[in-house]
Amino acid sequence: MTTAERDLVAALRAEVAAIDPPRRCCRSSESAGLAGAFAPRRRSIARLTLRLGRDRAGEGTAEVGRPVAGPAPFEWARAPEHCRIAYLRGRFLAHGSLSLASGRTHLEFVLAPDEGHNLCEWLGQLEMPATWRLRRGRGVVTWKSVETVITFLKVIGGGASLLELESRQVSRSVRGDLNRVINAESANLGRAVAASARQLQAIDALEADGRLAAQPYTVRLVADARREEPEATFTELAERLGFHRSAVQRAVERIERLALHPDEGVGKRSASSGASR
Questions:
Q1: Handedness of CA 32, 37, 108, 114 (dihedral sign)
Q2: Neighbour tally for 242: CB within 10 Å
Q3: CA atoms within a 13 Å half-sphere pointing along the CA-CB vector of 97
Q4: 25, 74 contact by CB (below 8 A)
Q5: In angstroms, rounded to a whole number, what is the distance separating the alpha carbons of residues 262 and 118?
Q6: Which of 68-82, 120-134, 211-225 has the lowest mean pLDDT?
Q7: Alpha-carbon distances of 267 from 28, 205, 217, 237, 259, rounded to whole Å
Q8: I need a labelling partner for 113 at 20 to 30 A (CA). Which of 50, 74, 182, 255 fits?
Q9: Alpha helix stretches (DSSP H) within the chain
């Protein structure tokens, strides 16, 4: 990741860690989510650990440098939604890793193998489906969908930093769409230029062997218009000449076909005329 991307991830984690759950049950749930995290890993998590540690009745303040003393195991099935969110916030801070490298958003949790499977199921219940796999004996729960990652960060309380992340994603999406449009337009322009050059060559070939003058009036008009406006589309030529677009297209196709077959056109007509005489 670039320095700016790392700073954004750090700011987002700091904002989430600064959230002070209003309910005692949520504070207890977030403490359960922090279980297994080492307080010195990040200052924001250390402060959160100390703050939540003071709130647990019958437990002393967590010591910096030791793993967070876990409260009673979190019971997902019986917990209300606000406690589930607090628990997931703690799990993200303790075991979550967010990457924004190369414009790709990737969030994963690295947990015990059995918990990885459970967390994947729980996230699915919240309509944020994830995938999980075993990696070096650990359960890894992964999101690669930027929409799902942003939804999760919103749910756990992401603030201004999340807005910055969304803004970057929108800008990146707009740039991607713009590049695709430009590339498509460039390709269309290239094809149009090639087609126009081919048509002009066909017109010159028919004029050189005298067959252009023998073509119907409409074909000759279209040929003259194409010479005067080589970059014009069939629609623009039709509007200029007062023809239907299909008539212009048929005329151009006739010109190109005759240019590809030098034996068609005037020669055959002359021979047939002589025979009839």
A1: negative
A2: 8
A3: 10
A4: no
A5: 76
A6: 68-82
A7: 96, 14, 19, 29, 13
A8: 50
A9: 3-17, 24-34, 43-54, 81-95, 113-125, 146-155, 160-208, 217-228, 234-241, 245-260, 266-276
Q: Is 189 exposed, middle or buried (0-12, 13-18, 19+ CB in 10 A)?
A: exposed
Strands laid side by side in the 106-111 sheet: 96-99, 106-111, 138-143, 131-135
Mention every residue, 6+ apart, whose C-beta is less than 8 A from residue 238. Answer: 244, 245, 247, 248
* Nearest-angstrom CA–CA distance, 81 and 111: 22
Tell whether domain 3-158 is in CATH 3.10.310.30. no
What is the per-residue pLDDT for 40? 43
Q: What residue has token string 């299909």?
A: 246
Neighbours of 187 (CB within 10 A): 10
Residue that the structure tokens 């048509």 belong to: 199
Cα 154 → chain centroid: 19
Asked if residue 189 lies in contact with residue 195, where contact means CB atoms within 8 angstroms, the answer is: no
Task: Tell me the per-residue pLDDT of 50-88, one tens digit each, with 9 for 90 and over.
Answer: 677 665 544 444 444 444 444 567 889 899 999 999 999
Domain range summary for the chain, segments of one domain joined by +? 3-158, 173-262
Q: How far apart are CA 60 and CA 238, in angstroms?
A: 86
Tally the C-alpha atoms within 13 A of residue 20's C-alpha that lie toward its C-beta: 5
At 232, is the secondary structure helix, strand, or coil? Answer: coil
3-class state of residue 62 by DSSP: coil
Mean pLDDT on 113-126: 88
Residue 192's nearest CA partner among 229, 244, 247, 155 is 229
d(CA 6, CA 115): 28
Residue owning tokens 């990652």: 149
